[in-house]
């Protein structure tokens, strides 16, 4: 990946004020966007945009692609490993799964890749944007797919969602990490991550720098510590990715220019909070032609809706106890460890007056009932066992509390911090090899990639209880920190999509991390009450994590969601071509099994 000085101009003189130079159509919501440190790469023999030359067999490999020098990987090595990590974190790649058979084309897609940093007006920190331009791009049928990474993943975090659908069809695909991502900053060493993913020092262009007031120890990362509350701007991040796509196409394909929102089809797609991002973009979506959102994390002011922070902190406290009352919950490699924590958690909740019961079984029934009263379905609670086993609820809550309250590194209201850790969970400095792999390996929210969650309240017999009670109090309490966090959440409320914009939502009925009842269902109801035609596919036996279907018990119980997202994109594209109506609402009767086939997935057909 070599810097391309000619790309610095990007078709416009000066500082790339894209509201002027990208011909953004008649949108009243266009904002000046400044892109920094752009660079491009051209495909190499055996390398490709979709898998970095790994192919489907390479993506299925259990071990990550190795670095020749673990402490100083090249940009090309980091890119390939980031692609591997992003695919495996999102997609169901089992040989007997559906990818490459019933949906998706794993063939190599040669092309060019363009990267830059974009900054929203008033933001402290940039977000990454990227355009993948396949050699097969057809300027006569110009198509751009715009996507936001799911979770807090890096810039390749939507490759299995948007890239896997758009690139084989000859569409250019634009991405944003939406102000999150894996650009960690090592506070001990004073080192961050440069534009090409390699470790870089202050004085160079960094994708995230917490600033001179940050602590001297630990790890800071953009989602938690940017002080921008990035979730409030996810729709604007997506818009800037679209602007970057047009500007890049104008530079890369001058004979076909100009590329504008008026003459280029733009479809937005994302899953999880990437799905929430595309629904945020749909509010002012006069630049969009269609939207497909999978299992979206979205906050709507409507009956039944609940904010992510509310139901996540509730689940973090109650679900470890409640799972003991669930009939045959799925098992993961960490289930036995979670089993050992259930008794102390139930007893602690009873002592705090949060549940009732004089014995563990009665206490578990009470916790279970509390979740059901809060709107959790039985299927969501059962699938939520995985998030309990992997401590995901606590990790999400700690990060989002910092983001919503706009706290800098070292100022978490519950004292949480992030650091490389010793076996006893005490913090230590990261090694050069750990630091070098963060950009490619990290999911954007610790724990993972050698960075852990430092909880100052750890104490037996229920080590995480005190920290979780503090996190929950930021939602239910009345102190200044609680008001600050809730004010950040209030910035997230989404309105209906623009009139006439085709919107299709796909959500698993068994989603135990982002339950449909709190998100997609009330969003559709509110949108329709406002006169918008939003379609919803509800998939039986689909939970939140396709990547975890590699766990035997989860693979036996659940189907992947991505085939339905790709099918919805197919239907939307056909509709835009005048070849069919938008898909109708559906409850899809999928059947999990040892070998998925078209009948088991029951994909809706035109």
Labels describing this entry:
single chain; 606 residues; 14% strand; disordered N terminus
Describe this structure as you would to a colleague.
By secondary structure, this protein is an alpha/beta fold. It is built from 20 helices and 17 strands. It has helices at residues 18-21, 55-60, 75-90, 159-166, 222-225, 234-252, 273-283, 308-322, 335-351, 360-373, 378-383, 385-389, 392-404, 432-441, 465-476, 480-490, 520-529, 552-557, 562-576, 598-601; strands at 34-42, 111-119, 127-134, 143-148, 172-176, 185-186, 191-193, 199-201, 219-220, 265-271, 290-294, 417-421, 427-428, 452-454, 503-508, 534-539, 586-588. Helix 6 (234-252) packs across helix 7, helix 8 (308-322) packs antiparallel against helix 10 and helix 8 (308-322) packs antiparallel against helix 13 (392-404).
Uncertain residue segments: 1-29
Largest sheet composition:
10 strands, mixed
Strand order of the largest sheet: 1-2-3-5-4-10-11-15-16-17
Strand content: 5-15%
| Computed structural class | alpha/beta
Task: Give me a quick take on this structure.
The protein has 606 residues and is of the alpha/beta class.
């Amino acid at each position: 990946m070599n810097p391309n000085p000619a790309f610095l101009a990007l078709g416009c003189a000066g500082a790339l004020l894209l509201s002027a130079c990208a011909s953004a159509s008649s949108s009243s919501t266009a904002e000046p966007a400044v892109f920094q440190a752009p660079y491009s790469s051209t495909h190499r023999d055996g390398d490709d945009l979709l898998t970095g030359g790994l192919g489907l067999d390479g993506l299925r490999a259990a071990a990550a692609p190795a670095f020749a020098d673990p402490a100083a990987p090249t940009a090309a090595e980091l890119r390939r490993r980031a692609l591997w990590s992003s695919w495996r974190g999102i997609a169901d790649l089992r040989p007997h799964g559906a990818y490459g058979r019933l949906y998706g084309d794993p063939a190599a897609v040669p092309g060019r890749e363009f990267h830059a940093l974009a900054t929203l007006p008033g933001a402290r920190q940039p977000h990454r944007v990227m355009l993948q331009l396949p050699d097969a791009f057809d300027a006569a049928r110009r198509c751009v797919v715009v996507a936001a990474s799911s979770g807090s993943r890096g810039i390749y975090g939507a490759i299995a969602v948007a890239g896997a659908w758009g690139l084989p069809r000859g569409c250019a695909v634009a991405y944003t990490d939406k102000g999150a991502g894996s650009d960690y900053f090592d506070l001990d060493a004073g080192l961050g991550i440069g534009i090409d993913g390699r470790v870089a020092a202050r004085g160079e262009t960094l994708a995230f720098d917490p600033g001179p007031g940050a602590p001297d120890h630990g790890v800071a990362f953009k989602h938690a510590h940017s002080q921008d509350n990035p979730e409030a701007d996810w729709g604007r991040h997506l818009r800037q990715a679209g602007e970057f796509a047009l500007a890049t196409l104008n530079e890369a394909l001058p004979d076909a220019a100009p590329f504008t929102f008026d003459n280029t089809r733009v479809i937005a797609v994302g899953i999880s909070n990437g799905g929430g991002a595309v629904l945020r973009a749909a509010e002012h979506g006069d630049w969009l032609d269609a939207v497909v959102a999978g299992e979206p994390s979205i906050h709507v002011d409507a009956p039944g809706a609940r904010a992510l922070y509310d139901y996540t902190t509730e689940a973090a406290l109650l679900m470890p106890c409640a799972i003991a009352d669930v009939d045959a919950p799925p098992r993961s490699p960490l289930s036995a460890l979670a089993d050992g924590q259930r008794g102390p958690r139930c007893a602690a909740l009873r002592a705090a007056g949060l549940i009732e019961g004089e014995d563990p079984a009665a206490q578990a029934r009470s916790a279970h009932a509390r979740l059901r009263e809060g709107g959790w379905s039985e299927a969501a609670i059962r699938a939520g066992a995985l998030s309990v086993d992997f401590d995901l609820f606590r990790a999400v809550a700690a990060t989002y509390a910092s983001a919503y309250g706009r706290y800098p590194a070292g100022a978490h209201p519950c004292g949480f911090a992030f650091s490389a850790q010793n076996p006893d969970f005490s913090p230590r400095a990261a090694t050069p090899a750990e630091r070098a792999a963060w950009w490619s390996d990290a999911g954007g929210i610790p724990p993972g990639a050698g960075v852990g969650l430092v909880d100052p309240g750890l104490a037996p017999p229920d080590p995480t209880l005190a920290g979780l009670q503090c996190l929950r109090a930021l939602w239910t309490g009345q102190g200044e920190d609680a008001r600050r966090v809730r004010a950040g959440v209030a910035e997230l409320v989404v309105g209906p999509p623009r009139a006439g914009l085709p919107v299709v939502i796909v959500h698993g009925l068994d989603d135990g991390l982002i339950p449909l009842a709190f998100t997609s269902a009330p969003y559709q109801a509110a949108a329709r009450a406002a006169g918008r035609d939003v379609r919803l596919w509800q998939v039986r036996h689909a939970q939140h994590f396709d990547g975890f279907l590699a766990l035997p018990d989860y693979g036996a119980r659940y189907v992947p969601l991505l085939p339905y997202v790709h099918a919805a994109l197919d239907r939307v594209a056909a509709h835009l071509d005048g070849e069919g109506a938008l898909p109708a609402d559906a409850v899809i009767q999928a059947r999990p099994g040892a070998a998925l086939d078209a009948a088991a997935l029951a994909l809706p057909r035109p």
